[in-house]
Design brief:
Layout (H helix, E strand, L loop, with lengths): L8 E2 L13 H8 L2 E5 L5 E5 L2 H9 L3 E2 L5 E2 L2 E2 L15 H10 L4 H24 L3 E3 H6 L1 H11 L6 H11 L6 H24 L5 H6 L6 H31 L2 H9 L4 H12 L6 E5 L3 E3 L2 E3 L4 E4 L1 H4 L35 H18 L4 E2 L21 E3 L1
Length: 393
């Protein structure tokens, strides 16, 4: 077993194509099953890049989502109340039990007509814009924002506030002070709603959770903030980036137009191909673990590179670096893996299918309004995508 630490490398971050993860990941998959890296925020940890290893780390209970209380002599603050994605069983189990039944495949399919109605209304807004618009602000962002607001019972009129705070919370350039301020503002906003729903419940998830009697006000505010953040940021970026990707791959878009039955598989392929959680998921070794001959000491950080695993030819044999909307399905890692797998993945699928199908049907001449290289990409956030997407029709 190797106990000496390898030389730190920088985690790959530079893309040569807006739709591909950094090319260095291919070299790492072929040469270094596990390597120690410096992450974009300056923290060091172990990086796993192969599909099999990424899935194994995320499913292994020896690697936890809960940060250790002490790291290199510095105390690590406990996760805010209700932020269950940073908890491990049994603490995590309590929250997942309350929430899982509200995001099942069946319930999300029942929601499909309401999502399709929201999509149709936003396409009407887009059409009224004339012959050009920013697809992010006019369509990709409003659709999931409207959906998650309706589900949670958050007033859509408050969208500018929570979208601004969300953008700060996932930014790589925001100061720690700005991050804390945005997170606290989001929590306060949801906390006020929680108190109102305890007094006068409405037909939404926050009201349902408030009246189970199992969560404190602070815990429910944390849960609501997390669902609101995750429920619009990720899907909005997937819709916009997928639209851009299909416009840049006209033969794939034509295949979808010719055979709409391909849409379910196309959504899975876009999730795999684009993998917008661009710097991976962080886990902490809860005990000493040996992996590929390396000793990962208890308390060490391990990063599971989702985007790299989703381009691993060992799992996706038919040219994983090519978009293929007709690809035979193989489980991907875009939503993570194991007990922390994304709770809202079925909702994201429903929204992507409704949004992309209707968008290209309603606007058959949709095209980029600027050269692709001029589209501002979100290299500076934890969730990859586009800052804006100028289109015309």
């Amino acid at each position: 077993m190797t106990t000496t630490q390898p030389t730190f490398k920088a985690q790959p971050t530079v893309r040569t194509c807006p739709f591909d993860p950094p090319q260095e990941y291919r070299t790492l998959r072929e040469q270094d099953a596990i390597t120690q890296v410096t992450l974009p925020d300056g923290v060091t940890g172990w990086l796993v890049t192969r599909y099999e290893d990424v899935g194994a780390v995320l499913a292994d209970p020896r690697f936890g989502a809960t940060l250790p209380r002490v790291v290199d002599g510095d105390a690590t603050p406990a996760p805010p109340p209700g932020m269950f994605i940073f908890l491990d069983p049994p603490a995590q189990t309590r929250f997942r039990r309350l929430l899982t039944g509200r995001f099942t495949v069946r319930r999300m399919r029942q929601l499909t007509p309401a999502v399709e109605q929201i999509v149709a209304e936003q396409l009407d807004v887009l059409a009224r814009a004339g012959s050009s618009a920013d697809l992010v602000q006019a369509f990709a962002l409003p659709v999931p924002s409207l959906v998650i607001c309706e589900l949670l019972g958050v007033p859509y009129a408050d969208r500018e506030e929570f979208q601004r705070n969300s953008a700060t919370m996932i930014s790589l350039t925001a100061s720690p002070e700005a991050f804390q301020e945005a997170r606290e503002a989001m929590r306060r906003h949801i906390h006020r709603l929680v108190l109102a729903k305890r007094a006068e419940p409405t037909d939404d998830i926050l009201s349902e959770l408030a009246h189970t009697g199992e969560l404190t006000d602070d815990e429910l505010a944390g849960v609501g903030s997390l669902l609101l953040l995750a429920g619009h940021e990720t899907t909005a970026n997937m819709i916009a980036l997928s639209a851009m990707c299909l416009l840049r791959n006209p033969e794939q878009l034509e295949a979808l137009r010719t055979d709409p039955a391909l849409m379910d598989g196309a959504v899975e392929e876009l999730l795999r191909y684009l993998t917008i959680v661009q710097f991976g998921l962080r886990r902490v070794a809860r005990e000493d673990v040996e992996l590929h001959g390396h000793l990962i000491k208890a308390g060490s950080l391990v990063v599971a590179a989702l985007s790299s695993g989703n381009r691993d030819a060992a799992q996706f044999a038919e040219d994983p670096d090519q978009l293929d909307v007709g690809r035979q399905y193989s489980p991907h890692l875009a939503f993570g893996h194991g007990i922390h797998q994304c709770l809202g993945q079925q909702l994201a699928r429903v929204e992507m299918k409704a949004a992309l199908g209707a968008l290209f049907e309603r606007f058959p001449t949709l095209r980029l309004a600027v050269p692709a290289e001029e589209v501002p990409m979100r290299h500076d956030t934890l969730v990859y995508g586009v800052h804006e997407l100028p289109v015309s029709w």
